[in-house]
Amino acid sequence: MIVETVGALAIGLGVAWLALRRLPHRLPDPRLVGPTGAETAAASKAAAIKGMEEMSARFKAEGAEIYLPAAE
């Protein structure tokens, strides 16, 4: 099982290295990848939390489970 894991790791790193060397013009600027990914994750988390808070408020206001109407 360890051999498969190490093999998959080696193949993945090899493919990534080849892509970085042969196709640098098709990949995003490395200086933007980290900050952009972090901002996207933070925005996604904030949106999920806001949605949960809204549903919780509706649940408390109605005092029952919230059922969404069936799509017709």
Give the count of structural domains.
Answer: 1
Please provide the count of β strands. 0
What overall form do the CA principal axes indicate?
elongated
* Uncertain segments: none
Order of helix and strand elements from N to C terminus: HH
Terminal-residue CA separation: 50 Å
β-strand percent reads under 5%
SS element count, helices:
2
- Residue share in helices? over 70%
Structural class: mainly alpha
Largest sheet: none
**CA-based gyration radius:** 22 Å
Mean pLDDT: 81
Question: Would you write up a description of this structure?
Answer:
- With 72 residues, the chain is mainly alpha-helical.
- It has one domain.
- It is 75% helix and 0% strand.
- The chain is built from 2 helices and no strands.
- The N and C termini lie far apart (50 Å).
